[in-house]
């Protein structure tokens, strides 16, 4: 499998304080990397550094062998799709108008989206299963639908790497599963995915690899089973965590235990 | 609307007279003789037509600036005067009245000080290393209040029988003394600004998503925002320099347009231009026909615009929620 993303000793700082330092990992095509870690550990910041929204203090990000520092925002956006955690849209665009904005890096500066861009936007909506919402306005959608619309906009960029910042936050149980199913489908179509999540169990469901960002460092980048175990999870979150194999559904689960 | 407006006013001109007049002109031109001068001709083509054109240009300009600022600042309650352009231009005009009392100098100083106010706000924002638009809005308020104070100072210093009324009337907004020569020079900055905004209109959608998302879509946010702000200010300053400070147009027209065509700037921006031109033409027609003496434009736009706005709020279809 082709190497898509290489993150090498990346660090980022607000003022003098380092948010994280010496973060390194790599990702091949179609792999899903789940990044776990407590609130405020810098997961979102890490994603934004990879997306080129924030400039890292040291280290480098290579996408398909090219350093993002020298690529330029437009070229990065053709390769990396970023799905923000939450977005506040001031104006009530229709879903289609919003998703076609993902075509921005492919459209020249004075132009508007053409028929081909509209077609790609519709296909992106179909890919996440919400083709029927195209004419609705954003304000009329539920939280789960909005998340899907955001993913569809990133897909319209035709990226090779998709960055998802806590895509299941604020969603109900059913919608969380729908988002994870979409993630799995996209990964199997060959897109590499880096996903922040608060639920270690999600790593078992969709992750090919996992890592935990804690105390400014990326711990244990490895197979999911090697990262999501009771010792590492307990130390990362500071609570009691158990990981058990459920026999009849043939997968491991990660559950919390109260004292 | 343009044609109808030609015939509106205190001096009645029958349609047949205009047709005769045009025929005469054509005959005169084709025979190479002098165009016959008539009162109708003067009223229609030297007084009313430039004024009608000016009203449409000013309405179009303020609306396109308003709608662009609203997108860039991600706030539908923003007006073209957000960065202090109105009070800057107002102070420029005061200076022109006090120091030169010359038509051209008043317009020129108004235009220059309008731009100056914007650059002051932007450099204050840069100096504070502000991120996003919050600091920029605050800088606009600061600049605006400084220039408002300076306007008061100018009024205080002005000759109460001569200069003071002129300042007051200028600030209330009027198109009554427009001539073709005024129109020609403001058309240049207006056209440049409008053209760039028109071409960039789809990108304003992306800016309205917020800085981080726009950046993730490959847009150079700071540069794009600066270009749009400069163009919108250019257009606003040019409008204000010939018409005075006319409120509400740049706020209400984008809302009406948004209700008609939705929030996508691809359609919204051209719609605002058309609506703005029509709205201003209507207001100016009112200004010169309702009473024997002219009513300042700023008063009518407020009297008409504010209730429309209140009605829109009541209907709850603002196009932004």
From TrEMBL, chain A:
**Keywords of this entry:** ATP-binding, Nucleotide-binding, Transport
Return the CDD domains for the record. Answer: ABC_Metallic_Cations
- All copies of the ABC transporter domain together span 5-240
Q: What is its EC number?
A: 7.6.2.8
GO-annotated molecular function: ABC-type vitamin B12 transporter activity; ATP binding; ATP hydrolysis activity
EC class (word)? translocase
What Gene3D superfamilies does the database record attribute to this sequence?
Answer: P-loop containing nucleotide triphosphate hydrolases
- Identify the SMART domains for this entry: AAA
Q: Which InterPro entries does this entry report, sorted A to Z? A: AAA+_ATPase, ABC_transporter-like_ATP-bd, ABC_transporter-like_CS, Metal_Ion_Import_ABC, P-loop_NTPase
Q: Which reaction does it catalyse?
A: an R-cob(III)alamin(out) + ATP + H2O = an R-cob(III)alamin(in) + ADP + phosphate + H(+)
Q: Explain the purpose of this protein.
A: Required for corrinoid utilization. Probably part of the ABC transporter complex BtuCDF involved in cobalamin (vitamin B12) import. Probably responsible for energy coupling to the transport system.
The protein's name is Cobalamin import ATP-binding protein BtuD
What is the species of this protein?
A: Methanothrix soehngenii (strain ATCC 5969 / DSM 3671 / JCM 10134 / NBRC 103675 / OCM 69 / GP-6)
């Amino acid at each position: 499998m082709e190497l898509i993303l290489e993150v090498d000793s990346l660090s980022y700082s607000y003022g003098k304080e380092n948010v994280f330092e010496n973060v390194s990992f790599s990702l091949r095509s179609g792999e899903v990397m789940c990044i776990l870690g407590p609130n405020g550990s810098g997961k979102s910041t890490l994603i934004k550094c990879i997306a080129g929204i924030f400039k890292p203090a040291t280290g480098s990000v290579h996408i398909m062998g090219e350093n993002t520092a020298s690529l330029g925002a437009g070229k990065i956006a053709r390769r990396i799709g970023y799905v923000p955690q939450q977005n506040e849209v001031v104006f009530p665009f229709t879903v289609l108008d919003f998703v076609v904005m993902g075509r921005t890096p492919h459209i020249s500066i004075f132009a508007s989206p053409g028929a081909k861009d509209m077609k790609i936007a519709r296909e992106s909506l179909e890919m996440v299963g919400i083709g029927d919402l195209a004419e609705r306005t954003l304000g009329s959608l539920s939280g789960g639908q909005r998340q899907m619309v955001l993913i569809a906009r990133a897909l319209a960029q035709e990226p090779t790497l998709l960055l998802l910042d806590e895509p299941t936050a604020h969603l109900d149980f059913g919608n969380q599963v729908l988002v994870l199913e979409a993630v799995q489908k996209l990964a199997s179509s060959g897109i590499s995915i880096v996903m922040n999540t608060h639920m270690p169990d999600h790593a078992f469901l969709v992750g090919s690899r996992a890592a935990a960002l804690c105390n400014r460092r990326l711990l244990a980048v490895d197979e999911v089973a090697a990262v999501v175990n009771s010792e590492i999870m307990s130390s990362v979150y500071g609570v009691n965590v158990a990981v058990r194999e459920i026999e009849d559904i043939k997968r491991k689960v990660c559950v919390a235990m109260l004292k | 609307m343009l044609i109808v407006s030609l015939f509106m006013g205190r001096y009645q001109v029958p349609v047949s007279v205009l047709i005769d007049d045009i025929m005469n002109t054509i005959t005169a031109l084709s025979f190479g003789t002098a165009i016959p001068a008539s009162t109708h001709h003067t009223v229609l083509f030297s007084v009313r037509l430039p004024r009608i054109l000016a009203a449409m240009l000013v309405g179009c300009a303020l609306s396109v600036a308003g709608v662009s600022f609203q997108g860039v600042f991600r706030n539908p309650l923003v007006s073209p005067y957000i960065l202090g352009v109105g009070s800057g231009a107002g102070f420029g005009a005061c200076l022109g009245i006090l120091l030169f009392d010359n038509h051209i100098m008043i317009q020129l100083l108004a235009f220059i000080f309008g731009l100056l106010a914007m650059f002051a706000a932007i450099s204050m924002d840069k100096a504070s290393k502000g991120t996003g638009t919050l600091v920029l809005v605050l800088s606009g308020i600061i600049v605006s209040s400084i220039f408002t104070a300076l306007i008061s100072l100018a009024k205080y210093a002005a000759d109460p029988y001569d200069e003071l009324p002129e300042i007051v009337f200028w600030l209330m907004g009027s198109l009554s003394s427009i001539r073709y020569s005024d129109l020609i020079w403001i058309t240049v900055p207006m056209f440049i600004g409008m053209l760039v905004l028109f071409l960039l209109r789809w990108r304003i959608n992306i800016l309205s998503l917020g800085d981080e998302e726009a950046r993730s879509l490959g847009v150079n946010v700071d540069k794009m925002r600066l270009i749009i702000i400069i163009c919108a200010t250019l257009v606003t300053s040019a409008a204000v320099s010939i018409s005075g400070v006319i409120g509400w147009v740049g706020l209400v027209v984008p809302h009406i347009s948004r209700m008609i065509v939705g929030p996508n700037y691809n359609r919204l921006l051209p719609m605002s231009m058309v609506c703005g031109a029509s709205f201003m033409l209507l207001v100016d027609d009112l200004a010169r026909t309702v009473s024997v003496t002219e009513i300042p434009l700023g008063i009518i736009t407020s009297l008409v615009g504010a209730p429309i706005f209140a009605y829109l709020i009541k209907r709850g279809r603002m196009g932004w929620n």
